[in-house]
Specification:
The chain is mainly alpha-helical and 216 residues long. The protein is built from 7 helices and 2 strands. β1 and β2 form a beta hairpin. The mean pLDDT is 93.
């Protein structure tokens, strides 16, 4: 059975984001082959997976057990998505060697975070997303620490900062649980956040394409 109202709108926006991520992933695959292109393709792959898995989580009425099982897959994918974003930025700014060094620490930490979130989803669900948000803030700080100095040297990275600003804005709006309005469909904070993610995808894709062309 389908859900209704804002929950169904959230599902539809997830589906739209998933389709868009796949489209951009395929388009990126046609760019000049290089390590930079490949790391960003991983990010778009994970973003697509998160969105497409999120669709049934919001679209269908299901038992608590089935919902837990979906989130047991979704949380690790979300962790991997954020990690791939961080890795792609580090690869852009500092190179492949620096990215690999960072991943040696962050991959085990991400695995531990995923296991913790799966447990929390079953035992203290209301706090699981808060912990995920804190994890994102830690990596966000690292991303900003890399991008801000890079943007001072190369204005192209300002497009990366613009994409990141969309993510931050969407995350802030998502925390405002009172947001609810009707624009043909019923939207709440989640639908607004998903729209911000859609914009992030497009702006980031534009910036990555310019960067790949720049390095020739």
């Amino acid at each position: 059975m389908w859900t209704q109202g804002t929950e169904l709108t959230t599902a539809v926006t997830d589906l739209i984001n998933g389709i868009m991520a796949v489209i951009l992933l395929l388009r990126m695959g046609k760019l000049k082959a290089c390590g930079l292109r490949n790391v960003w393709m991983v990010f778009y792959l994970m973003l697509g997976l998160v969105s497409l898995i999120g669709f049934p989580a919001h679209a269908f009425v299901m038992s608590a057990e089935t919902n837990h099982r979906i989130w047991a897959v979704l949380y690790p994918c979300m962790i991997a998505m954020v990690l791939s974003y961080y890795a792609a930025v580090v690869c852009n700014v500092k190179g492949d060697a620096a990215m690999r060094k960072a991943l040696m620490i962050l991959i085990p930490a991400s695995a531990a975070a995923s296991a913790g979130l799966i447990w929390m989803d079953r035992n203290m669900r209301s706090r699981a997303f808060i912990v995920f948000g804190l994890w994102c803030l830690i990596l966000l700080a690292g991303i900003l620490g890399n991008l801000i100095p890079a943007a001072k040297k190369n204005p192209l990275y300002k497009s990366y900062l613009a994409a990141l600003a969309l993510l931050v804005t969407g995350s802030i709006l998502q925390s405002m649980k009172f947001i609810r309005f009707t624009l043909i469909f019923e939207f709440n904070y989640n639908g607004v956040y998903h729209f911000a993610i859609l914009l992030l995808m497009l702006v980031q894709y534009w910036g990555v394409c310019r960067r790949i062309k720049e390095i020739g």
